[in-house]
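Predict structure. Chain length: 261.
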Amino acid sequence: QFFLMFLIMFFSKKLQKFNNIKHCFFSRKNGFSKGIYESLNCGAGSNDNKENVFKNLQLVSNKINCNKDSLITLNQKHTNQVIHFKNETSVENKLTADAIVSEVKNVGIGILTADCAPILFYDQKKKIIGCAHSGWKGALNGIIKNTVKKFNELNSNNNDLIAVVGPCIGKKSYKVKEDFINKFVSYENNNKIFFEKIDNGKFLFDLRGFINKEILNSGIKNIENLEMDTFSEKEFFYSYRRSVLNKEKDYGRCISVILMT
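Prediction complete.
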């Protein structure tokens, strides 16, 4: 119990207004993992000690007030696949996809990230929650569009939808080469506004800006951003890019969760 007091957690002002919603963008602080995984590593897919990851997920479950077996994450692969939980029998852990849309109460749905953006969704009228994992590949492949489409198939009105984009790699930290830009510009010429040239063929990429454009284009106007940079704020977040730069063999994952009561 003592540990629970000191988890560092980030919240959405918009989602905090609802009594039936529990949510959190968890930092990496005050879990059980050691070394490069220090300390609230929730990535079971990492090479961290499984027992520590298990204990970290238990901490998260306690904080969100759900049974550990009711904390559901995905086998994330940067796809545009969306899972739908209609009722308790459809709930399954570790399915391969990059978003969940859920109508089920007391089940926490979570996204694991280390530079990609976790996005939480809520439709207050229809009482449907969602979460999505969006890096550049997922965003470009349509994970956001497909998540909103799933809400719409459940008769969700975009005017009732809230989307909250959590901590992710910031523009000033995201250096890319020209071939990377071509992936975006060949898709839509206007995407070049998300790149800023710095020097010798290097550019900065605004992932958060691109994600916000995708959310707006999907018809959601009610958007909130937790403007934190996972790459530079190493005290609070894991970062895939930072670990590669530091030649570390692996990296931890932060978890972001939403639950409806």
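Summary: The first strand starts at residue 9 and ends at 10.
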